[in-house]
Design goal:
Two copies of one chain form a homodimer. Helices cover about 45% and strands about 5% of the residues of chain A. Chain A is mainly alpha-helical and about 140 residues long. Chain A has a single domain, classed as Winged helix-like DNA-binding domain superfamily/Winged helix DNA-binding domain (Arc Repressor Mutant, subunit A, Orthogonal Bundle), CATH 1.10.10.10. Chain A has a two-stranded antiparallel sheet. The longest helix of chain A has 17 residues. The first copy, chain A, is elongated, with a radius of gyration of 18 Å. The model of chain A has no long low-confidence stretch (mean pLDDT about 95). The interface between A and B is large, with 40 and 40 residues. Bound molecules: iron/sulfur cluster (2 copies). One iron/sulfur cluster binds next to helix 5 of chain B. One iron/sulfur cluster (SF4) binds next to helix 5 of chain A. Chain A binds a DNA duplex (30 and 30 nucleotides) through helix 3.
DNA sequence: TTTAAATTCTACCTAAAGGTAGTAATTGAT
DNA sequence: ATCAATTACTACCTTTAGGTAGAATTTAAA
């Protein structure tokens, strides 16, 4: 019952870039060290973020990464979707799925509340929100 | 962001046994077919449930499984704990952990609400609750 | 006492997540 | 032109979750 590591890394990466990119462009080495993410694994995530057009890369010496869009335009849910890790409408607690109002497990209704809260949290939080000064990434 | 298959299976198994055990003892074959869980995988889960003393087994011909305790005494959280799948106090959204009130990510406070709701749901729901007639398992 | 239906044990297999290694390509600075 | 710092690409490795196979053990009934 947790986000997978790759999604967690991706959110922290984007958030860190958002916070620092006005000072200087961010290299994979800096990101790896600052965020304590294995370098080789980080570069793998970066190429996914580049292909998904969340960030754009500058190759060659003095290269690095910067956000392609404004950080308030990227929601957490957008990022999670890239890694198949968001909470979908049909998300089921017991893995049966496709139940309806007449036939459902006893936990279904209680499961809706936290589920909707999490969906809302992911959809309404942007990378800008979580990159605010003073907050941990 | 979901329960692992093994936990889901275990909850459904216990719930099914709770509902049917007054009629007859439940064999692995019946459970496997009724719940659509691969037979060999189910028997593996059953031995864990036996060792954890959620169910007791009757070996040999006409054997099977029955609950060891009253179904209202087994909470969903108890079951999830057996499979390292419950939501812990320190459960973190971004995987950084060990943050405090002064230093936390921007999502921490919003994450508390759904997290507490889910904890409550798991702790206050028993196998009896979810095995009620008319509800899917 | 044999048989068949059941659980239990040990060992293995497969797929996915998480992570690593090495090399090629790009590019600014010297 | 060369070099060093950088991203991009391809391929592999390790761990964990999920699942399978087969034989051993137990027991009620014929
Ligand atoms: S009723 Fe229960 S089993 Fe059915 S879809 Fe909802 S959570 Fe899943
Ligand atoms: S503040 Fe954020 S990163 Fe820190 S423990 Fe809470 S959820 Fe995790």
């Amino acid at each position: 019952m947790r986000l997978n590591s790759t999604s967690q890394y991706a959110i922290r990466i984007l958030s860190y870039i958002a916070r620092k990119q006005d000072e200087h462009i961010l290299s994979a080495h800096e990101l790896s060290e600052a965020l304590n993410i294995p370098y080789k694994f980080l570069t793998k995530i970066m190429t996914k973020l580049v292909k998904a057009e969340f960030v754009e890369s500058v190759r060659g010496r003095d290269g690095g990464f910067r956000l392609k869009d404004d950080p308030e335009k990227i929601s957490i849910d957008d990022v999670l979707n890239l890694f198949n890790d968001s909470i979908k409408e049909e998300q089921c607690l017991l893995g049966i799925g496709a139940c309806d109002t007449h036939c459902k497990c006893a936990m279904h209704d209680q499961w809706m509340k936290p589920k909707l809260l999490i969906q809302k949290l992911f959809r309404e939080s942007s990378i800008k929100d979580i990159s605010k000064k003073g907050s941990k990434i």
